[in-house]
TrEMBL record:
Annotated N-acetyltransferase domain residues: 11-153
Keyword Acyltransferase: yes
Pfam family, one: Acetyltransf_10
Species the sequence originates in: Novipirellula rosea
Listed SUPFAM superfamilies: Acyl-CoA N-acyltransferases (Nat)
Domain of life: Bacteria
Name listed for the protein in its UniProt record: GNAT family N-acetyltransferase
Keywords: Acyltransferase, Transferase
Listed PROSITE patterns: GNAT (PS51186)
InterPro entries referenced in this protein's UniProt entry, alphabetically: Acyl_CoA_acyltransferase, Bact_Acetyltransf, GNAT_dom
Length: 155
């Protein structure tokens, strides 16, 4: 396992504007990490549906290291989706840092409950960050997933 000292220097948490250059980098990163290994690609309609979502990332210079999207269901409820960390940088704390900063951003907006659909292989990662399994396994994008939630304050 890599140590935190292997992390790129000067990593910045940033909001990502839909259709920006960094957003296009996020599509490429998500494709490489989440879709390409499954032989899948994003459709135009899937990407167009992200217009109303929040997007965040971790940048080192102009390079996107990690990204995530957020759907706001209501002023107090959100769903984390499409979390991806560059495969060469996984295990170095960048994903944990990104998710922690996103949670702070959502909490500042009044979000109290966050849900996500975790790939089975990522359940331990999310559990270490305080998420709890709240559903039975199901298949999404050809892989087993589990619904998980985290309460920021009492729901």
């Amino acid at each position: 396992m890599s140590s935190e000292s292997d992390r790129p220097v000067s990593i910045q948490f940033v909001p990502i504007e839909f259709q920006s250059d960094v957003y296009r980098q996020s599509i490429a990163l998500r494709h490489a990490v989440l879709r390409q290994p499954l032989g899948l690609a994003y459709s135009e309609s899937q990407l167009a549906a992200e217009h109303d979502q929040l997007h965040f990332g971790m940048l080192s210079g102009n390079q996107l290291l990690a990204c995530v999207s957020v759907m706001l269901f209501s002023p107090s409820e959100a769903k984390i989706r499409q979390m991806a960390v560059d495969a060469a940088l996984q295990g170095r704390g960048i994903g944990s840092d990104l998710l922690g900063r996103v949670e702070l951003e959502l909490k500042s907006r009044g979000v109290q409950c966050i849900e996500l659909h975790a790939r089975e292989v990522a359940v331990g990662f999310y559990e270490r960050l305080g998420y709890m399994v709240t559903g039975e396994p199901f298949t999404e994008v050809t892989l087993p997933h589990i619904k998980m939630t985290k309460t920021m304050v009492t729901c």
